[in-house]
Structures are given as C-alpha cells and as structure tokens.
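queue> pop job 88
queue> type: inverse folding (structure -> sequence)
queue> payload:
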C-alpha cells in the first residue's frame, strides 16, 4: 500500500531522466529528485538556488540553504551562479510547488487574496520565478482541489505560459520553455501544444476524469487516450521510505 504523497513523488521521479539537470526546491520536489538519483537516474544533476550544485544528498534538506545541499557537491557556489546557469540554458528542468496554479501553468506562492491585505501570505518566489523563467521544462507537484487549480491566480509569482501562445516570448523569456507536467494526487497533467492549456495526461488508479474536473476551477482538456498512471513499485517505495525520507517528514509515515 502507498499514500497519495508517495504516489506523487514516485510518479514525478520517473520524469527525471538520467543525465538531465534539474533545479529543485525543498520538500516533495527534492524527494522526487533524490528518489530518481537512487533508482533509475544516478547521473541526474541537482541544483539548489542557494548554490549547491550536484550534491550527493545524505538526507532530506530542510531548506535550499541547508548544508546538506552541498554535501559532496561539484560546487558550493552562489545564487548568482545557479541563476546564470539557468539563463545560459543548461538547466533542463525546474521542479516546483505552489499554492495556486491556473490553466496556463502560472503559479502563485506569494499571497491568497489582495496583496496589501492578504488572507494568507506565503514565503514568495525564492528561486521559483527564475527557475521557471529560464529552465526548459517546469514540473509542478501539488494537491488537487479547486482552491489550488483556479481560473486566475491571486498573484503571479512564477510564469507558466502567462496568457497563452506567444506570451512567454513577448515577455522576453526564451522560446521553447514553459510548463511540462503537473503531478497531483489525482492525475498527471500536460499542456496542449497549440493553445498552451492544461490537459489530463494520465489518471491515477481509481480516479475518473470527472473527479479531476470537479476539483478544477477552470476548463480542463484531456489527451485523446488518457492512460492510467503506473502505481509505485515495491523497490521505489522501499528506497523512498528507507533512504530518501526515513523520518516521514514529506511522505507522512
């Protein structure tokens, strides 16, 4: 058996291929990257915004500036160097979370409600804006409900496809970049190439398209043949539970 977070992390880790480069935040994105390194992608190069480049993580870091993010790393450098690497186009993936996401993959991790008098204030961008602006593909991992999957984000912290086709390029961002996959506790979403809007790519075991749409505020498309998500394998769960997050800080066990 597995829980929803374990499913999300295992599914997300499979998207990170061996030899790729990925800028990650802490929490579930970091757990997915660690799992990938310990299973199918030992040459995955992980970067943290505070300066850790290609560490061999001994344990789950609690922040992007945690000393563990530079453990046996190629470099313990600076935020400027990491962001410059993104700007030079050498980072394949950005792997992020967020409080809200819209149909074009725009993320809000700043406030809920009015910016001056919000009902909730979050930590803000950190490196999220820079990562998603300049890494070639953005992966997002989040819970799936109507409070998060909204028609319009309350604050645009991190750019997805902005307002649609051509909008990223018009804003001065590199052509060819943008959101790639959104992994939730219900499904995996991709983005339709021509209109840049979110669509259902695969459904987790026992979940229907109707359930996903009921938990999404905006109109959600789907690919022609929606697959069923392959559930976590026994070895993936063992590594995740025993080597990546043995204390259950992320997976909740």
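queue> result:
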């Amino acid at each position: 058996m597995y829980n929803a977070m374990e499913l999300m992390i295992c599914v997300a880790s499979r998207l990170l291929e061996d030899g790729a480069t990925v800028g990650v935040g802490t929490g579930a994105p970091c757990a997915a990257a660690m799992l990938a390194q310990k299973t199918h992608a030992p040459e995955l190069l992980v970067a943290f915004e505070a300066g850790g480049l290609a560490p061999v993580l001994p344990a789950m870091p609690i922040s992007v500036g945690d000393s563990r993010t530079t453990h046996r790393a190629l470099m313990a450098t600076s935020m400027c160097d990491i962001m410059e690497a993104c700007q030079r186009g050498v980072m394949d993936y950005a792997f992020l979370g967020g409080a809200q996401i819209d149909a074009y993959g725009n993320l809000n991790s700043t406030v809920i409600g009015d910016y001056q008098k919000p009902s909730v204030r979050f930590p803000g961008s950190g490196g999220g804006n820079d990562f998603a602006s300049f890494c070639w593909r953005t992966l997002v991992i989040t819970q799936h409900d109507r409070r998060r999957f909204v028609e319009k984000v309350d604050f645009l912290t991190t750019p997805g496809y902005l307002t649609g086709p051509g909008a990223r390029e018009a804003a001065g961002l590199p052509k060819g970049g943008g959101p790639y996959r959104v992994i939730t506790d219900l499904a995996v979403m991709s983005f339709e190439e021509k209109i840049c809007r979110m669509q259902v790519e695969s459904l987790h075991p026992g979940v229907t398209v109707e359930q996903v749409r009921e938990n999404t505020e905006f109109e959600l498309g789907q690919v022609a043949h929606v697959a069923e998500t392959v559930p976590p394998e026994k070895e993936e769960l063992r590594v995740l539970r025993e080597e990546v997050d043995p204390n259950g800080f992320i997976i909740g066990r």
